[in-house]
Fold these 2 entries.
Entry 1:
Amino acid sequence: MLREVIFYSLIVGAGTGGELCVSRAMKTVGEVKDFRPAALLRVFLRALRLRWMWLGLVMMTMAFLALLGILTTENVSLVVPVTALSYAAGALGGKMFLGETVTPRRWAGVLLVCLGVTLVLIGRP
Amino acid sequence: MTHPAKIESTASSSLHLKTYLLILLMVIFGPLGNVMLGKGMRSVGAVTVRTPAEVVPVFSQVFTTGAIWLGVASLIAFFVAYMLVLSWADYSYVQPASAMAYAVVALLGHYLLREVVTPIRWMGVLVICLGVLIVGHTPPSTTEAS
C-alpha cells in the first residue's frame, strides 16, 4: 500500500509539476508556426536552452519511472485513470504557477474528474 | 484588399485546426504508449532489486522487450505534440482536451490486454471525461504568452 501511495504521488506530483515547467518553457519559446523538420529542430534546441524545460524533463522522467514501476503489478486501465488526479494539481498549478484564471466552472469540472477517479478505484475487481 | 476581420477569422480557424490536430495525436500516441508499456512491463514481471548488480539484468530485460520500445516511441511522439501545442495554447486547456485518452486507454486495456474493466470503472472513466469536457469549455487562454 505504501509503495502504491509513493508511486502514485510521484506520477501525479512530479508529472504535473514537470508539465507546468514545460508549459512555462514553451510559452517563452513562443507559438510554433513553421512545422518543417528544420524549423521544429530549431524550436526544440531553443527550448532545451531554458532551465524550465530541463527541470520539467527531470520531473517528468521521475513520474515516468514511477509509472513503469507501478505498471509491473497494476492494470493499465486502473493506473492511467488514477493519474487523472493531475487535473486537480494542474488547475492549482496553472493558477498559482502560470497565473491562469481558474473559474468556478473549471473547478466543478476538476471535482467531477476527482469523483471519476474515486469510482475507478472503487470499481477495482 | 482582404478585410482585417476575415484575416483574423482565418488565423483563428487555423489555430483551432492545428490545436485539434496535435491534441488528436496526443490522444492516439499517449494511450498507445501506456498500453504498450503496460504490456511490456507485465511480460517482465514484478521487479525486485536487492543489490546494484541486479539492476543490469533488469534493465537488459526491459530494453530488449519490443513492446517497451514501441511504448517509448509512442510516448515521445505524444510529448513532441504536447510541447508544440503548449507553445500557443493554455496548459489548463490542453490538459483537459486530451481527456479522451482515458476512454481510449480503457478500450485498449479491455480489448488488447484483455483486462477486466468493471461497469463502475467504465462509469468512472465517463465521469472523468465529463469533468474534463466541462473544464475544456472554459476560456482556452487566460494569459498572454511571454
Entry 2:
Amino acid sequence: MVGKNKILFVIILLLLGANAFIIVQYKSSPKTGYVLIQELYNGFEMKKEMEKKYLQVKNSREKILDSLTLELKILSQKIAIEKEKNPETIQSFESKRAEFIERKQMFEEDNNALSQKYDQEILTQLNQYTKDFGKANGYTYIFGNDGNGSLMFSEDSQNITNEVIEFINNKYKGVE
Amino acid sequence: MLNKYHLIFICTFLFAACAGEQAEKDNETNIVSGNVGELLEPIDYVGWVQNPENGLKMNKVIDDIQFSVQYKPYEYIVCMEERTPSVQDSLLKRKFNELSEMQYFDLTISLVDGAGELLKYRLNSGQQYSERVNYFSFAMQKDIVLVDGKDTIPCELYHFERAYDVMPSGTFLLGFGKKNETLSSSKTLVLYDRVFGKGTIKLTIDKERIKNTPKLKTI
C-alpha cells in the first residue's frame, strides 16, 4: 500500500515537473509570427480613411481642370468658326492654355506630395501599433511577408495578419 | 497512504496556480465597475479621474510623441478650480449650471524621451517656431473634433497652455457642444497632427467608463 502511494506521488511530481518544464520552455523560446504586409496595409482603417481624403482632394482638383478644359474647347471652337481671326480671342485662348498647363503641373506635384505625406503618416502609425501588438502579446519577432522572397516559408499557423489588423485598428480608434 | 505533507504540497501548488488566474480576473473587473455609486472626497475624486486605469484618461504613443486626453466631468472641473478639501453642495449645483452647456477635455501633447519646449522640438528655422506658436495658439482648433455617438462636433472652446522649458509638453483645454447622445455614447477625440507628422490621432473615452464615474462628496 505504502509502496503504491509512493509511486503515485512520484508520478504526480513528474507530471508537475513536466508541466513546469513545458511552461519554462514555452516562455523561453522566441515567439514568432508573420504578417502579409499588403493585407495588413489594406486592412488598416487609417489607410482607408486617408485614401478617401486623398481622392476627395484629387477629384476636386480634377474638376477645376475639367472646367478649364471646357473653356479651352469653347474658345478653340470660336476661333475655328471665325472667318477673320480675332486677336483677342486668340490671346484669351493662349492665356487660358498657359493657365491650364501651369495648374495641371501644380496639381500633379501637390497630389504626389499629399500622397507621400499620407503614406508616411500611415506607415508611422502602422509600425508603432504593430510594435505595440508584439510587446502586448510577447512576440520576439514579427516578420513581414511582402512576396519579394524575404520570407521564403512559414507555416500558415504562424500567420497573425488578422489578429494584428484587429489590434492596430483598435489602437487607431483609440479604444485600447 | 500518501504522506499528508505530500498532499499539502500538491494542493498548495494547484491552489496557487488557480488563485493567480482568479486575481487577474478580479483586477480587471474592479477597474471597469468597482466604483459605481461611490462618494469620494475632492482629493480622491481628482485622483480617480486622473488615473488612466479608470478610463477617463487615454494615452497614445506614436514614436517620439505622446498624445493624451483627459475627459473632465463637471465635478472634476469644480474640484480643480476650488482646490479645497471639501465642496459645498450649493456651489456644485451653481457650477453645474454654468458648465452644463458643454463637455470638456484636456489634450496634452508631450515628448516621450525629450526635454525642453515642445514647440522647439525638431525645428528647422526660427520662422517655423513662429508658425508653430501661431498654429498651436489658434489654428489647431480647426483640426480637432469630437465624435460623440453619430455626431461630429467642432471644437468651440480652445485654449493652449504653453509649458515653455518647464515641461516637454503642451496642454490644450477643449470644450465641445452637447448633442442628444452625449449621455449614452463613447466619445472619440480626433486630432489631425500637422506639426509632428503623425496624421490622424484618435483617442476614445468609453461610455461605460463615463457611466461608472463615482460621485463627488459634498457638504
